[in-house]
Each structure stands twice: as structure tokens, then as C-alpha cells.
Give the backbone structure.
Amino acid sequence: MRVPLSWLRSYCDPGLSAEELAERLNMTGTEVVRVERVGVGDPARFVVGKVLSAERHPNADRLRVCEVDAGDGPRTIVCGAPNVAAGQTVAVALPGAVMPDGQALGEATLRGVRSSGMILAEDEVGIGGDHAGIMVLPDELPPGAPLAEHLPIADEVLEAEITPNRPDCLGVYGIAREVHAVTGAELAPDPTLEDAQPAGDDDVQQHVSIEIDPEVCLRFTARAFEGVRIGPSPLWLKQRLMAAGQRPISNVVDVTNYVMLLTGQPLHAFDLDAVRGGRISVRRAEPGERLTTLDGVERELDPSMAVICDAEGTTSLAGIMGGQVSEVSDGTTRVLMEAATWVGRNILETSKRLGLRSEASARFEKQLHPDQAAAAQRLAARLMVEICGARLVPGTIDLYPSPLPERVVRLRHARVRKLLGEDIPEQEIVRILVSLGFEVQPSSAADGVAWEVTVPGFRDSDVQREADLIEEVARVYGLEKLPTTLPARKGGAAALTRAQRVRRRAEDALRDRGLSEIVAWSFTSPAALERARLGDVPVLRLENPLSEEQSVMRPLLLPGLLDSARHNTARGRPGLALFESAHVYRPSGPLTGVHDESGRVPRGAVPASERHHIGAVMTEAVPGSWRRAPEPADFFAVKGVLAGVLDSLRVEWRVEPAERPFLHPGRAASVVAGADERKLGWVGELHPLVARAWDLERVAAFEIDADLLAELVPERLRHRETGAFPAVVQDLAVVVAEDVPADQVRAAVAAGGGELLERIEVFDVYRGEQVGPGRKSLALRLEFRAPDRTLTDAEVAERRAAIERELAPIGGRLRG
């Protein structure tokens, strides 16, 4: 929502700068994301001028040499506008003026004539879009008067992010009401209270008949105007529309946009002569019905969508956009002004299905109150009479089948004090509520003072209970003034669950090893899963995705980690070590047999499994320095990080060869853990095709199930007494085939070493001529120890022989 400050100040001027006002609104719940300057630079060089003469340029047929009094005597200005004439009062930019595009104006020689200034058109000061001719100002303005005192040529705009529960703030007067409440500045009367005077002996029902479907339209009001003169809007209206982000079109269309921007209630103007049969009906669209909207696009509709029709067919897409059939044009003389209240959810769903969103639909989808339609009609009628010279036909068609009752909410002072922890004075509570538009009547309660508060229609969807009123009081009073207290809980104490403690220990272990944590989207796209070679993984699809890029729930953390790695690499940070600790989602049941007759999956029909995972990606194992180049991450680097995490949690684990489509063949493994060897996750280098799809080179990664990990972490660590007798340490070199994993060698050595073998460590690997092609030599350090004696060389030799026997089945032998 763009709020021009000059427009806002015309209703409530707190005397604050734009930045100060934005800060005050931010502190009370109306978020202002930026302050933008529009119009000219320094307005001091823009003045009112009087054209004394306008003669043809001696060297150019389309130029005029004008003598202009700009308050400091005649000056020569060369002008190319076809409508410039002697005697006009005009807007003049003097040399040194800074135009809206930032260009500084200087004196110039045009076809041999020196020009000292510029006579201005609308677009040259940001008031409108017309460049066909210069602006002609009222004759009573004196030459040399500052132009900014008569035209808003420089303005500031507050860009506000309005939450869905506050459609009243989608109008300038709604923001002015907020400013009034939070600053105490005087608020001008509601501009919708005053109505236009009808003229004539006819009645609107003689010109048109209307019927509605109350399931899609809560209220429909219409007024007729005759003698409408289509033309440009006045400059003040054009400037307000331009600053608010709307392009001026014609006076009738500009009136509808102006009322919408001021009140938050959209309107639509029909060319009454183009309403075929003099009849309008609101209904649901027929299957396959088509409509060409004002943007020139032909759209196919379905029965869930609301449309406005005349006697011969559909004319408008209700609450979203009008059609070309009854569009107001330059030849329009009779106008039917419609202000309606549509069912917000219907507008939202129609807008999404058609991929069409407008300023009107953005307001209607938040569910406006029916009272706002009648209010907007009053303001629009006044403007149609004043600006368009129209005659308001007596009568208003007002179809309101089920009027909403007035909402009255009881507010207790004691409850305010209990919820906020602050004893706000009674008078201040009443002042705040009245300033926000509520009607407050005193009442009583068993525990003290109370009030009966009548909720205005424009706040009805947001304020429905006592706690909502207390929230209004709190935000305007100042949340920063409230004491900081913890909520009272009987018999409760905050504590982390065991799974949360395990996750935090794992996350801390990763941070301690230099990894940086990221937070990625819980959504991803089917295309991203295809790039990650995860196309066969079952996924949960969203019923209402924000976009195709976020249309499925992520089954793994890997795509989000890769997105972050690509983002950092593209910005000059290729050496990465990232991790994420978050949930992943998969269907936990079959997808067959859950579709309804339309082929959609009913809400809640697919059972979902939500698990917490911890994943990491690394592109660099050791950072580079002036002495050495960085070492890229590989299988062993990422496995070492994983080992640091699991070992710190005292989990028994190992890896075993396993292929996954997204991992490099031969450089991938499954992680198994626990006494029953449950699959905990995977570790490995990414497949080159996957890395290339994210514009990365060599990437190593792992991902484990943190929920399962929490089950495997021992609750208590068992103390093991340090042996009183010395250990016997021996190094062995075991030669095996190249494809035999070290873990298999460890298992064979452990079986042969028996109970006396206390520890095994693989500390080297050798490949070369001494072991032969296709074979490798693993160096192992063994520690033997007995709990009750010092081992003899014979006992250790016996264990070595047993180890050699256990190695034979896997093709291993001890290297001499």
C-alpha cells in the first residue's frame, strides 16, 4: 500500500517527518518498509508564470518563443507545446531546477534562440502522464508564486506492508485513523459521510434492474449518473493517483480508483448504455464460459467463479476485473456505479485459479464489511457530480439479503490489567478505542469497571472478542511500555526433550568443526529433485503452492543445502562447509485410492511422515593459505566430520558400501548404527552430474535421521575401569584385494583378536609394486591387554595366528 504523505496529511497531520511517522507506525503494528520521494527535487526552482506573448519560432514551425513573467521580469522560454498561448498562467521550471528524473535544467539555445527555463507539462513534474500539452493553471495565481504552494509537485510516499487482518489500512483514511490514534493529531471528518444531492424526477430502478446470488455476493449497491462528461481529472487528483501507484485514465475511472485508495472499498463503473437489456445479474459462471477482461485476455471460467452479467452475457469477473463489453469510454454519457461486497474466500480462490490479481481483488479477498459499500457510494457520488459534471439519478439499488448485526464486545478493565501486566488508566483505554473508531459505553463488572464496545464495520473481521480489544489498547499504548514478564504456569517447568538435547549436541559438534548453519525452505520443486536425481523419491505435493518452485515438501535436506552452496559460490565464496538441522517430509501411506471425483487429493487424505534430519555439504576440507592451496572435500573428509559428531554422542556406528543415484559410484556409503545396525543415513561424494546441476565442482555430503539418532544415543555412559596391567602394542600390515573395505578387515582382525584385543586403528594404506596390482596394504595398530595379568609374547603370537586365520576367507594375509 503506497500512502502519499501529502494526501495523508490532508486528513491527519501530526507534524512529524516521514521517517518519524514511519517509526511510530512500525511500533504500533503498521509496518512501513520504505519511504520514497516522488516528484521534483528542490521545489524552490519551480514557480507560477504568466505567458506575456507566444510567437512562432523563426527557425522552427513547431516551436514557440514565449515571453514569460516568472516573478522576476520577462524571460524568454522556447516551448514546443501546441496549446501554449498568451495570457495563460503556467508552471515554470527555472534554470537550476532538478526534474523528477534527476536531471538539472540549464539555459539552452534552441535553433538560435536562448531559452531560460521550461514551461511544464504534467509528466514533467510527476503529476500525471500527459505530455500532449502544458498545464494551464487558474488565472488568479500570481507570477513568481512558489508552484509547490498550489500543486503537490514534490511528495513523499510511505510504502506499507498491510497484514491480511487489516483491510481498513488499505485505504489512506484508514492509515490516517491509525496516525490519529498513535500521535493524538486531529483527524479530519470521514470523507464518506457526506452524500451528493440527487436531481430529477426519475429513479435508478427505471434505468436498470439487478439480481444477485447471496452465496457469492453479500451486498450489491448501484447508482446511476447521467450527463457525464468524460475528460481528464483535475491535477490534484492525478497527482494523488500517480503517487499512490495508479495511472490516471479518465475522470470516471479515476474517481473509482481514488475512492478505492482512500476508503479501501473497490468500485466499478459500467457504461449504462452498454448494459444490454438494462439488466444486471450476479451469478456463478457456467462451465466453459469465457470472458475477455479489461487487460485484453480471454479467460475460461468455471462454476466456482462469480460473474456479473447483463441480459446477453457475462460482462465482468466479480471483484477482480471488469470486461470490455461495458467498459467506460470517451463516448460514455451514462454511468452505473457499482459498490459490492463479495465473499472473500471466493475472490481469493478465483484469483489464484486464473492467475489474475488486481488492486480490487487484493482488498476483497481479505473480506470487506458490507457497510463499506454504502460509504464508498456516497463519496463516489460527490466526486462524480463535482468532477464529471454528472446528474445523480435519485435512488440507490441496495441488495443486502442478510444484514450483519452490529458487533458489541464487553471489555473489563481488570482483564486488561491481567493480560498486559500494566495498570493503564481507564481514560487512556477509552481514548485509544475511540480514536480507532470504536464506540465505547460505560458498563460495570463484578471485578470493577467495564465497557460495552461497538466494533465499527471496517474492523469487524479483526476485532471479535475481548482479547482483540486488549491487543488494540496494547499496541497503541506502546508495547515497549509494558513490563517484561514470563507467563504464569502452575506446576510447569521448561525443559528440552531428550531428542532436542541430542540434536543440540550434534549441531554444536558441527559448529565446533567449522561448519556454518543454514535455514532453507521446507518446500522445493519437482525440477530440483530431478536435478538431484531424486525423481523416484515419493513426495508430498502442496494443494495450493505459492509457485512451481515451491510446490512439493522436501524429502531430503540436500536440495536446500545445494541451493545455499550455489548462492555462496556465485558470490565468490566457493570454499564451503554448511549444515542444516530441520524437518523433511514424505508420504507415510499409499497414494492410491485417495483421489476424489475431480481427480484431486482431498485435504488430509495423504498421511505424512515428518522426520528431523541433520545434513551437511562440504566443498573444501582444508582452507588454503599463502603456503598451500585449499584441499577439496572428499569422502574421507566428510566422513571424518560425521565421525566427530557420532563419536561425541557415543553412538556405535559404521559405514557399508551402498549406491545412491545422487552419489558418486564407489564413493558412497550407508551409515548403520546401534546393536541392531539400523540405517541412520548416508555419506559420500555427490555424483558429478548433480554437482554440475548446481554449478559446483567436487562436493561431499552426508545426511542422517536425527530422530533415530536420539533413540540410539545411550542414556547413560558405562564406566570402564582402566587396566592395571600394561598393553602390548603391535602394528600389522594386512594385504587384501583393492575392493575389500577396511571395515571388513577390521571385523576379521577383531574376531581373531578375541577378548584380549582392546583397540584397533587403521593408520595407513599402501598401494604399489610390493603388494602387486589390484591389491592394497592396510596398516593397523593393535592394543592387547588382559585385565588380570601382563600378556606374554606367546599369548600375543597366538592371537596373531588367529587373526591370520580370520583374514584368509576374505583373501587377506599378513605382510612380512
The first strand starts at residue 2 and ends at 4. Residues 371-388 form the longest helix (18 residues). Residues 41 and 102 are 7 Å apart (CA to CA). Confidence is low (pLDDT under 50) at residues 591-601.
